[in-house]
Amino acid sequence: GSMVRLPNKRSDPGYYDTVVNPIDIMKIQQKLKTDEYDTMEDLKADFELMVSNTKLYYKRGSPEYRDAQELENLLGKAVGSVMAGEDPSQTLGDREDSDLGEFLEELFGAIMTAADSTEPSRLLNIVFQLLPSRKRYPEYYEHISDPMDLKTVAEKIQKGEYKEIPELEKDLQLIFSNARSFNEPGSQIYKDAGVLSKLAKSRTADCVASLVARQARGSRSSRRQSRQVYSQGIAALQYEDSESESDEDSDLEDMDGSTDPMWKLYSAVRNFTTERGVEIAEVFLSLPSKRELPDYYQTITQPISLNQIRRKIRNGEYPTLQHLGEDLEIMFNNCKTYNRQDSKLWKDGNKLQKFFNTKLEELLEGGDEISAPATPAPAPEKMDVEVKKSSPKDPKDQLKKKLKILFNSIYHWA
Asked: Cβ contacts of residue 269 below 8 Å, gap of 6+?
């Protein structure tokens, strides 16, 4: 094809009028032999140039354009495989596998684009993208024996681990059945899981039938080539442990001896331990991740965390002890509103709330009512952060080996 060897200048002069920097696989091979690539990015950049040249000159929908688009979708995955020490040929697969990949993306895309029928701007997939934090919801992992999320599914699509469309549907159905098993019937998540489960089943049947028909015709991939590929973006999502603010708690010791009633109340709640000596306030330090639990922010109108309350104390934003108490009350009520009554979080929140109310009354009765802003606690000292040393660079011969592996896999594919 045009990517293996450039068009002849005599028979196709228009190509060289359109393309400023022509390059093909043969030229890349020559540059590889003469050690002109210093990094993997350099080699990847030439393959990307080759792809963009092909898409620039050939018409959308032509075999050349489709081949370039297919390689464009696979290139990043191939480079990732090589750098991870894996065989990129498994990622690229045979050309015949491209049909399966297309239909896997189509099924995954159907889930990613499904919206609420009564509120079209609300996509149903958001809450299923990432599993809940183990720290915040340990009972989820006690109840669910086989956790699964859309990020894991997307990673498996990217790595070519699904050999059949029903394998993908099985993982999708696992996500939705887990959601319905853990959440109460009638909840929004339960309802959304039911809608997506039905959609996955119907679209799987459509995709399987279409794939069989195409393979029977023996035709090359030609449909929906311009569709959006969702798996790449979802696979790249990072798990958030909802601890973005926890570093602000580093100087807690400075307020333990404080005589200020606001710091006394905050410290008592923060350091509360159960009769078994277990600290249960840590999950209240920061708010849930908006990506992990987007519905939290739809349910809770006044989200607030211990670290936010702590900042407000330091900044003198509470006129009286009662004003501080109001925010703590909101925080505990938020917890009990969002979480199920039989959950560990609800029970911990309820236990802390009872302790807080007792402590607040104790401070007020002891004459600790104040009308002036609390004295800010000392500013936290900067803590040394242990930085992991980066691993030494691979020797040049290791780089050459990886460059050749990537080239050979793409040459074989083309």
From this structure: 281, 306, 328, 352, 355, 356, 359
Alpha-carbon separation of residue 259 from 171, 240, 249, 358 (angstroms)? 56, 36, 19, 18
For the chain, give the mean pLDDT.
82
Provide the whole-model pTM: 0.49
Q: Report residue 192 as tokens.
A: 């959304």
Give the CA diameter of the chain.
Answer: 97
CA angle 311, 312, 317 (to 5 degrees): 150
Give the pLDDT means over successive 10-residue stretches in the chain (414 positions).
79 88 90 90 92 89 81 84 76 62 92 92 90 84 93 91 94 96 90 96 93 70 56 82 45 58 92 88 85 80 91 90 93 92 90 94 72 46 41 67 84 71
